[in-house]
Automatic annotation (TrEMBL):
This is Exocyst complex component. Signal peptide: none annotated. It comes from the Eukaryota. Residues 44-213 form the Exocyst complex component EXOC6/Sec15 N-terminal domain. Component of the exocyst complex involved in the docking of exocytic vesicles with fusion sites on the plasma membrane. GO terms for biological process: Golgi to plasma membrane transport; intracellular protein transport; vesicle tethering involved in exocytosis. It comes from Poecilia formosa. InterPro entries: EXOC6/Sec15, EXOC6/Sec15_C, EXOC6/Sec15_C_dom1, EXOC6_Sec15_N, EXOC6PINT-1/Sec15/Tip20_C_dom2. The keyword Transport applies. Pfam families: EXOC6_Sec15_N (PF20651), Sec15_C (PF04091).
């Protein structure tokens, strides 16, 4: 059974080999080799091959004759074919020989047609490409020449017009690829030029501002009318007459007056305009370029941002700006330069900056400028620098006002600085007045010649006809302080006037400011200086007398100061609400202070003499003929006579008051010696000695050491002491007690308290005398009398109080 299956399997495999492509018999053969009947299969395969060989042999034998016949016919055809071939070759050779010329002509014609077509195509393409190349060449030239705005226009035309017409060529592609790069290059280059421009104007803003300010100064100078020139000349002439210097510290010699006036009216040198110093083309080019690029907003924002940064830098003053005027000048020049540039940009570009932006910048700048000036000017203590700063601020304000910027705040600030300037002037004049007082010898001025006399009278308005009649040499009543102080007052007024100029103030306002400042100088500065001179140590009576004489003459000159102010301000003093000068009151106060100081000093000197008084309060009674005036009192009277002889130049009332004050002080001091608590006992002999001294004082008073007293007016200063001494030396108690309180009382000026106190001291003396005298009857009676008088005085005092 197995052999039958094997045979069937082998048969199937053989069929597959016969019917299958040789490329696919691999699996079939693999199955044969995988089996166990490999030899048997080979045998069947050999048998099958032999069968096929026999069939092939049979087939060949069947068709052999036909094959032989075909070969025989083929051999016959080969001969004919050889002949035909030879004929064809010959015909071909002849045809080739005959067609060579035609072929050559056809090739030439073909080449000619191709060339014609290429030429036409080339001409057409060149017609489209040549504008591109020409425009690109122009673009390159513009780029090399740094004409970026035309280059950008050319680039735009090349990109949108020429390149699309040219077609897809390699050079067109290269150009198209380079266009964004060129555009970016132009943008960056334009921005670089803008940065350079911004840096340039930042560095040169100082010069730009200086030039703009010079232009305004030149315009202001040219605008001075002939009338104004005449007024200025009149001011200079007035200055020459009153000897007021043109500056605070430096006097102008009179011989240079006309030269100075001439220099003021020389035509100024022409200065270039601010736009001549700066090339604004970079900002214009950059604006046009960014406009073409569609980035105008970006450019405007960048420009404004950078300029705001520069504005903050410009508005930041240097820490030491207040030290010199040059520091302020650089500060103002930079600010003016900044806003001149902005104003030029505003008027030469369309929308890069607008009026609102510029006004916003100016408001910011104005607040910072005012704050900076207030801060730095507060450090200044030099009036010359403040005055120069004021003139610089005025020129700065006028410059910016000419460009349309509001500057009212600057002028308001200048009015604020006016107060500071006035304080600085007061400090300087305080030092000046003190220096004059320290250098003054407080003596009348001796003049030997008419020239010297005219020199002093030109400095001070002295009007004394009697003095003019005197022959030389003679003495002016006042000391050097008076003409020097008067000149300084006028110099102060002129310094105030210099600050008030160009502040757009009316004449009335200027006049009011000058008068108020002058009043401060008089009432505060000069008054304090006079008080300082009066109150300082070691001031003698002669010096105080001269101070009174000086202040009297200065008081008389006040109306000349009024006229001086009126002349320079052209405002009559009778104008409504016009401020009046307080000079009269100031000099009166100073004179009164000097008078009081004279009285005080004189009394102090009297006290020094009185300290030398050495009374023997327990001295025995002597006859009046045996007593002499005390030595200290003789010296005191001699001193008073010599002192009052100096008072001849004083006003009468002052000398009289001083004399009366001295006599009252002597009387009061002698009274105090009697009532001194340390003096517990006083004898009648001591009272007699005091009475002799009092008679010497009364003799001095009767001699009228100072003219002007009527009758025995001066004796009234000693009346209290005289009545008291008369009461005790005459022992007239019955009259005193009987007439007390009556207007006709002989001892009306004797106070019962004073009398009681003196009696108490005499009681003690009497008590001791009684003990020492072993109770003599006369002493006992006197003691009883004193006790009785004391009792009655006490009753009188009690009744008076009741």
């Amino acid at each position: 059974m197995a052999s039958v299956e094997t045979a069937a399997e082998h048969e199937r495999i053989l069929r597959e080999i016969e019917s299958t492509d040789t490329n696919c018999i691999g699996p079939t053969l693999r199955s044969v080799y995988d089996g166990q009947e490999h030899g048997l299969f080979m045998e069947k395969l050999d048998a099958r091959i032999r069968n096929h060989d026999r069939e092939i042999e049979k087939m060949c034998n069947h068709h052999f004759q036909g094959f032989v016949d075909s070969i025989t016919e083929l051999l016959k055809v080969r001969g004919e074919a050889q002949k035909l071939k030879s004929q064809v070759i010959e015909t071909n050779v002849r045809l080739q020989e005959d067609g060579k010329v035609l072929i050559g002509s056809m090739e030439e014609l073909k080449q000619c047609r191709v060339q014609q077509r290429n030429i036409a195509t080339t001409v057409d393409k060149l017609a489209h490409c040549l504008p591109v190349l020409e425009m690109y060449s122009r673009l390159q030239e513009q780029m090399r020449a740094k004409r970026y705005y035309p280059a950008l226009r050319t680039l735009e035309q090349l990109e949108h017009t020429c390149l699309p017409r040219a077609g897809q060529y390699r050079f067109c592609s290269i150009m198209a690829e380079n266009i964004p790069k060129l555009r970016m290059h132009i943008r960056e280059t334009a921005m670089t030029q803008l940065r350079d421009f911004l840096e340039s104007i930042r560095k040169h803003s100082d010069k730009i501002g200086e030039t703009a300010i010079k232009q305004v100064a030149a315009v202001d100078f040219k605008s001075v009318s002939m009338s104004n020139q005449s007024q200025i000349k009149q001011k200079y002439a007035l200055n020459m007459l009153i000897n007021v210097p043109l500056t605070i510290n430096q006097r102008q010699p009179i011989r240079l007056l006309h030269l100075k006036i001439k220099e003021m009216f020389v035509q100024p040198v022409q200065v270039p305009g601010a736009q001549d110093l700066v090339d604004f083309s970079p900002v214009y080019r950059c604006l046009h370029i960014y406009t073409v690029l569609g980035l105008r907003d970006v450019f405007e924002n960048y420009y404004r941002k950078q300029r705001r940064k520069q504005a903050r830098l410009v508005l930041q003053p240097h820490s030491n700006m207040h030290e010199t005027l040059e520091g302020y000048r650089r500060y103002f020049n930079q600010i003016v330069g900044f806003f001149v540039v902005e104003d030029h940009i505003l008027h030469t570009t369309q929308g890069l900056v607008n009026r609102a932006y510029v006004e916003e910048l100016w408001e910011l700048a104005l607040s910072k400028i005012v704050a900076a000036l207030r801060t730095h000017s507060s450090y200044c203590d030099d009036p010359d620098l403040v005055l120069d700063l004021k003139n610089l601020i005025v020129l700065f304000a006028d410059t910016l006002q000419g460009y349309g910027f509001p500057v009212s705040q600057l002028f308001d600030m200048l009015l604020e600085m006016r107060e500071q300037y006035g304080e600085i002037l007061l400090k300087r004049w305080n030092l000046t007045f003190r220096q004059i007082l320290d250098q003054d010898n407080f003596s009348p001025i001796p003049v030997s010649t008419e020239q010297e006399y005219r020199q002093y009278t030109s400095q001070f308005p002295l009007q004394d006809p009697e003095l003019e009649k005197l022959s030389f040499p003679k003495k002016l009543p006042f000391s050097e302080f008076v003409p020097k102080a008067y000149c300084q007052l006028k110099e102060f007024i002129y310094a105030c006037l210099k600050y008030s100029e160009d502040l757009h103030l009316s004449s009335t306002e200027i006049d009011d400011m000058i008068r108020k400042s002058t009043n401060l100088l008089l009432t505060r500065t000069l008054s304090n200086c006079l008080q300082y001179a009066i109150k300082k140590k070691n001031v003698g009576l002669a010096e105080l007398v001269q101070v009174i004489i000086n202040t009297t003459h200065l008081e008389q000159s006040c109306h000349f100061l009024e006229e001086f102010i009126t002349n320079i301000t052209n405002v009559p003093p009778e104008t409504a609400n016009a401020t009046k000068l307080y000079g009269t009151a100031t000099f009166k106060d100073a004179r009164h202070a000097a008078e009081a100081e004279i009285y005080t000093s004189l009394n102090a000197k009297i006290d020094q003499f009185l300290q030398l008084a050495d009374y023997d309060w327990m001295s025995a009674a002597q006859s009046s003929g045996g007593l002499t005036t005390s030595d200290y009192l003789i010296d005191l009277i001699t001193f008073l006579r010599s002192t009052f002889s100096v008072f001849t130049n004083l006003p009468g009332k002052v000398a009289q008051t001083a004399c009366m004050s001295a006599c009252k002080h002597i009387s009061t001091s002698l009274m105090q010696l009697l009532l001194d608590p340390e003096v517990r006992q006083i004898s009648i002999g001591a009272l007699h000695q005091l009475n002799v001294d009092l008679k010497e004082c009364e003799s001095f008073a009767r001699a009228s050491p100072v003219a002007g007293f009527q009758g025995d007016t001066l004796l009234l200063a000693f009346s209290d002491l005289r009545q008291l001494l008369d009461l005790f030396t005459q022992w007239d108690w019955s009259t005193y007690l009987a007439d007390y309180g009556k207007s006709t009382c002989k001892y009306l000026r004797v106070n019962p308290h004073t009398a009681l106190a003196l009696l108490e001291k005499m009681k003690e003396t009497s008590r001791k005398n009684v003990v020492l005298a072993q109770f003599k009857k006369a002493d006992r009676d006197r003691q009883k009398l004193i006790d009785a008088v004391i009792k009655q005085l006490r009753n009188l005092i009690a009744q008076h109080h009741a």
